[in-house]
Predict the structure.
Amino acid sequence: MLKKFGIILMCLLLAAASFSACSKKQNTNGNDESTTEEQGLDDVANEYGFEEDENGDTVAVVYENGKAYVIDENGNKTGKEIKNPKNAPTNSGSSGTGESGGDDSGGSESPTRVTERESVTNRTEDEKATTKSELTTLPLDKDVVPSTSASGTPVQFSDKDVTTLTNMLEVPYLYIENYENSDLVPIDTATHVACWMAQRQNIDTNTFAGGTVSVDLFCYFARTVVGFKAQCNDYIGTDNSAPISYDSANDTFTITASSYESPTHRVEISSIEDLGNNNYYKVIADVSGLDSSCKKKKVIAIVQKNKLDLSLGFSVKALKWS
């Protein structure tokens, strides 16, 4: 998990090192795909991480001599210190518990996993334009996330990337909320994403450390889900609620069902448009309901190509279901 912290932090700090750490290969569609090698990031992973501040928000920190100092988007200390850091690496001199992925929390056996689709139809293959060969990284003041009403140039995506995006948009009950990037991420939607991301860790437990879940949500949305821990339990027992609960005493999340959530809908991506700026794309897909609660027929998603999670390679920045 600390290695994941390092990768995420380097993306946050706009450091080119995180991009050069992954070797690349050119596929037949002209798209760039990264291998899962993370050499060169080990030192970074042992120095940086995420902690929760007094407001319950997840913030980036640098660990020094057992202490955790909050840093800004440029990697500079803000003068703020997190008391009793929970996620400090073991070699930092801290007595914090650390997080290895959630399997040290004493949870029960993992719920039954629900298989993702391994291949889907790629309807972008005939487009002439292709995705950019390299990721771009802009300062935060120049990084503008497009709205779902934006339009761009249709581009060709690889079969692998289309499959990944399809699975990301098929998170159970993802269709219950719309949001633009200017809005806060809806908590009820985030509970389902948290379950889906927990399942993807492939760990034999039903209990996950609080920081692990927070980082997983950050990877999916490329932003902090504000107030998630405080509000997660508000949705227990509501219509189509996710089987997840939060224990503030132990700072852990538990999957409360014997199985992860079954698919509620299918999407078929019809086109992907390059919106420019900072690797933003508009994904347009047809929707068909598997669950009776899903009446949606179409979804527009704004996604960003990034490396916050190497197994995904994308984050969902906005959703509009209709």
Q: What stands out?
A: The helical segments are 2-12, 17-20, 42-45, 159-169, 187-200, 210-221, 228-231. The longest helix spans residues 187-200. DSSP finds seven helices and 15 strands in the chain. Residues 1-46, 91-105 have pLDDT under 50 and may be disordered.
